[in-house]
Amino acid sequence: MAKQMAYNEETQKAVRRVWDEFKSETGTSQAKAAKALGINQSALSQYLRGEIPLNTDFLAKFAKLTKSDLDSLGITPATVGAMPLELRYTLSGRRLRDTSALVPSPTSFEGCFGIVVDYDDFALPRDSIMIVDETTTIKEYDSVILVSRDDRMINGTIRYTPDGWEVLEPHARGARRFVVRGDDTIYRLGGAFLPERHGRTFEQKPARG
């Protein structure tokens, strides 16, 4: 899954301040807010008191609920400019562990959701997030995600043939063809977020004269 960051005491204070202001302005109870966040009231209370460490999944949902800017929650500079993105599927079809993530972006992800790459033998690294746009018109030769009726994710190029539409999933030895059926769902792939990785630094050697 996408990395869950730890947040400091300043963020905790900011979350409490935003909650107090939101509660005062809207009259929202903890029980109602907890339901909207997808957690129970006890968990929300523990988040607000600092008994459960804050994480990106909670902060993304909390910011959306309270209509707060992420930087108003005191999020560290590394995440300034990040926007909450709903996570809807894993590429393998396995159950998600988180339902949202903070992804660097100058604009909101309205009309978009993410698919988490949760295995290694794929073109993108494990823990990458494929960003899907639900609102964009799909055209022939677009890169798409086909969601089958059993929630299998197929990433490929869509094209039209005399027999109808199909998605070509690339492989080392050619491509696998999937006929688009009436109960399949097709989404246009809009981009991807790659996880930060730390390794050795490559040093370019001077070109020989």
TrEMBL record:
It comes from the Bacteria. Residues 29-73 form the HTH cro/C1-type domain. Pfam families: HTH_3. InterPro entries: Cro/C1-type_HTH (IPR001387), Lambda_DNA-bd_dom_sf (IPR010982). One of its GO terms (molecular function) is DNA binding. This is Transcriptional regulator, XRE family.
